[in-house]
């Protein structure tokens, strides 16, 4: 996935994985829009994207084990996350910043990664 700053003008230091470089880089996220190639810390990015070889990556699947986090901001963005207790993807409201990698823009995407 490409690095996308989003369509808003906020200033949220973030990290994204660049496959061509084989590593995570720092960039500034604007606060809305963009894609899911965005992490709060270098460590989160590296854990989620460390092994991008053929087939599902154990590192990528780990994000499904993270708790559901609404984030630190108060925006209203419907998202989907894997609920470990229910063992299925569920809808939740993402606040727009913070949170973790257990966050998907569609139920389909969540299910394809986590179920």
Describe this structure in words.
The protein has 115 residues and is an alpha+beta fold. It is built from 3 helices and 4 strands. A two-stranded antiparallel ribbon has the order 1-2. A two-stranded antiparallel ribbon has the order 3-4. The two termini are 21 Å apart. Residues 53-57 have low confidence and may be disordered.
Using the coordinates above, name the CATH class. Few Secondary Structures
Run of helices and strands: EEHHEEH
Average pLDDT: 84
What structural class is derived from the secondary structure elements?
alpha+beta
Termini Cα gap: 21 Å
Number of domains: 1
Evaluate the radius of gyration: 13 Å
Number of helices: 3
The beta-strand count equals 4
Short overview:
This protein has 115 residues and is an alpha+beta fold.
């Amino acid at each position: 996935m490409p690095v996308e700053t989003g369509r808003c003008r906020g200033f949220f230091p973030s990290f994204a994985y660049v496959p061509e470089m084989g590593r995570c880089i720092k960039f500034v996220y604007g606060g809305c829009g963009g894609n899911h190639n965005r992490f709060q810390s270098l460590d989160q990015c590296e854990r989620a994207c460390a092994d991008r070889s053929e087939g599902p990556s154990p590192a990528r699947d780990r994000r499904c084990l993270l708790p559901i986090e609404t984030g630190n901001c108060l925006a209203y963005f419907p998202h989907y996350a894997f609920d470990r207790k229910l063992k299925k993807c569920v809808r939740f409201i993402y606040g727009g910043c913070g949170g973790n990698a257990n966050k998907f823009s569609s139920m389909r995407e969540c299910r394809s990664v986590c179920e």
